[in-house]
């Protein structure tokens, strides 16, 4: 670190980026292209982020890979071919490694390095970043590309540390894989990770017991080759195709439904539902009719169709009823795409334990006890989710102007302007942070939009001679109100979802993402920039 009379005048680098997933990799590439010096800090020992950590059997994307991919470089796109409609974790990891190699990114990434603290030095106008292992470094700008689903939720099950058999977390799966052949396995959790892994664990295990607290909605992924129509559209008009995704509601090129449920006959609704199930995409099933996310009756119609489908597959009526989600509206928890999930419960060696009827009382040395029974296992798999959206951000001890910590400021929920910055924390940028479309969208598209906005902002500042940027309080408060209003007109706040922070005991209950749409959000961000960074204070 350069120092004059003991006080640093110049930072070690222009920008520190934390995280080497999709977001951190593209941020580094973009910054370099603009002539900024940058260092990426990453806990893992290689690139990949989500796709480095989540190596459980069946892990794959739920946005078609032709869309869940970088679009910023046409040459990169022609250099890579996805093998499946929904590529599996090893292939997505290979892709991100390929990206790192293609742009020679690893030389500016410090692996096996956890960022523990970051403090804004008001005099020197730079961030002092503390790392484990040290030494830390200083930077003018600090970008958190730390991921929305990167911090596993702490286990909140009594006795969990007593179990003497093998314990696995889907979010921290061993690199060498796990062989469950002949084993008695218990899986706790039936979100996307559980629903993807359960059918494959069932193929190996001698006995599989699934502990379900909340059933989830799932439709078949119908995985296979990448969709021919997308491939053709990309081949003939790549830019137009990517543009349609950027200006769509969830970041995939698709026209939204315009008719409300009441405008359709029951036969038309059923035909749309069947077509969406046959298509096997979230974009399709979440857009059956225009009011399914806002009108309880319209949503009930999807729920009923989903329940009928589950009952038609699962042979044991009691198990089928337990698998039918009734405590939340369709779409208010992220729906899942599966391969043979419901069919798995027809196998004689697979048992569903409905924790609504018999809650877990404790984990024991040899298994799991519920209010009604005791289950013995060789291995327990926890697919229990993440401290989503804010976990990785407040996991770093971040101190801003006047000694205020971000953790304190966000004690009642995140406060940001555009999900990009928080008042009192100059030059700190969040990639796909809370109050941006983020996890409600195809994140490849949302990550690119944020990275490009931040890069443009830093270049604009350099050209205009500014060195600090932070939102005004008015802008931040206004954005917070707008976020809350957008969520309030939907059914989302009614669910105990991780979108609401409800999965982590003690976490404030607020809707964590911006639900106004990828298209509307992009328009706001573009306008803010065009109007000279309206709502930001530059110095
Ligand atoms: P991440 O990939 O999470 O990377 C963040 C990195 O930051 C991690 O490597 C982490 O180790 C590092 N990090 C965090 N804190 C620190 C720290 N303090 N110090 C140092 N390093 C730190 N989204 C979709 O749009 N479509 C999908 O199909 C899809 N599938 C998913 C499947 C799974 C199993 C999961 C868990 C998520 C999925 N997501 C999907 C969301 C996914 O997280 C994003 O699409 C995307 O990969 C996020 O990239 P990122 O770079 O922002 O964050
Ligand atoms: O986590 P989750 P996830 N006792 O929070 C249960 C993305 N993703 O890793 O709902 C008993 O959804 C919990 O029960 P409940 C995607 O965005 C995508 O599966 O809290 N059970 C729930 O069933 C996804 O939404 C893919 O009642 C407990 C489960 O554990 C997000 O990541 C694949 C419990 C956790 O489900 C998170 O998914 C994987 C307890 N104490 C992930 N605590 C794709 O398909 C928790 N549970 C692309």
TrEMBL record:
GO terms for MF: hydrolase activity
Protein's UniProt name: Alpha/beta hydrolase fold domain-containing protein
Parent-protein start and end of this portion: 1 to 539 of 862
Keyword Transmembrane: no
Organism: Pseudonocardia humida
Cofactor entry: FAD
Keywords, alphabetical: FAD, Flavoprotein, Hydrolase, Monooxygenase, NADP, Oxidoreductase
Record has tRNA-binding as a keyword: no
Family to which the UniProt record says this protein belongs: Belongs to the FAD-binding monooxygenase family.
């Amino acid at each position: 670190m350069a120092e004059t009379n003991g006080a640093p005048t110049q930072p070690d680098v222009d920008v520190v980026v934390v995280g080497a997933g999709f977001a951190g990799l593209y941020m580094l590439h973009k910054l370099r292209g603009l002539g900024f010096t940058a260092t990426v800090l990453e806990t893992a020992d290689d690139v990949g982020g989500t796709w480095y950590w989540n190596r459980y059997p069946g892990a794959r994307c739920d946005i078609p890979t032709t869309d869940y991919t970088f679009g910023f470089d046409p040459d990169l796109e022609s250099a890579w071919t996805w093998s499946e409609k929904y590529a599996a974790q090893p292939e997505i990891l290979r892709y991100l490694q390929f990206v790192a190699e293609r742009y020679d990114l690893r030389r500016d990434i410090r692996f096996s390095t956890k960022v523990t603290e970051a403090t804004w030095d008001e005099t020197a106008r730079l961030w002092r970043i503390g790392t484990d292992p040290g030494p830390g470094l200083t930077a003018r700008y600090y970008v958190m590309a730390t991921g929305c689903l990167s911090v596993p939720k702490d286990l909140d099950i009594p006795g969990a540390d007593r179990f003497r058999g093998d314990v696995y977390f889907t979010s921290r799966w061993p690199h060498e894989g796990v062989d469950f052949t002949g084993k008695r396995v218990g899986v706790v959790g039936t979100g996307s990770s559980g629903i993807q892994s359960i059918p494959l664990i069932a193929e190996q295990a001698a006995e599989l017991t699934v502990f379900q607290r909340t059933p989830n909605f799932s439709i078949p992924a119908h995985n296979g080759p990448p969709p021919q129509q997308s491939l053709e559209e990309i081949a003939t008009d790549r830019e137009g195709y990517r543009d349609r995704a950027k200006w769509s509601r969830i970041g995939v090129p698709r026209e939204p439904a315009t008719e409300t449920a009441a405008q359709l006959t029951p036969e038309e609704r059923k035909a749309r539902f069947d077509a969406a199930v046959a298509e096997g995409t979230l974009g399709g099933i979440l857009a059956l009719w225009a009011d399914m996310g806002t009108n309880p009756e319209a949503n009930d119609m999807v729920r009923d169709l989903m329940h009928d489908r589950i009952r038609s597959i699962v042979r044991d009526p009691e198990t089928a009823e337990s698998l039918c989600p009734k405590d939340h509206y369709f779409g208010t928890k992220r729906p899942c795409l599966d391969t043979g999930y419901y069919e798995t419960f027809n196998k004689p060696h697979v048992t569903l334990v409905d924790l609504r009827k018999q809650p877990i009382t404790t984990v024991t040395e040899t298994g799991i006890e519920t209010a009604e029974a005791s289950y013995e296992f060789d291995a327990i798999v926890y697919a229990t989710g993440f401290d989503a959206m804010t976990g990785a951000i407040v996991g770093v001890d971040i101190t801003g102007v006047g000694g205020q910590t971000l953790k304190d400021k966000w004690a009642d929920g995140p406060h940001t302007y555009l999900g990009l910055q928080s008042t009192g924390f100059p030059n700190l940028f969040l990639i796909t942070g809370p109050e941006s479309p983020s996890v409600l969208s195809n994140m490849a598209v949302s990550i690119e939009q944020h990275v490009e906005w931040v890069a443009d902002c830093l270049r604009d500042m350099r050209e205009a001679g500014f060195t600090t940027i932070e939102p005004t309080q008015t802008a931040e408060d206004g954005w917070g109100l707008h976020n809350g209003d957008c969520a309030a007109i939907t059914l989302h706040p009614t669910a105990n979802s991780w979108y609401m922070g409800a999965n982590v005991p003690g976490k404030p209950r607020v809707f964590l993402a911006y639900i106004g749409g990828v298209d509307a959000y992009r328009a706001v961000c573009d306008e803010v920039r065009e109007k000279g960074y309206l709502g930001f204070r530059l110095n």
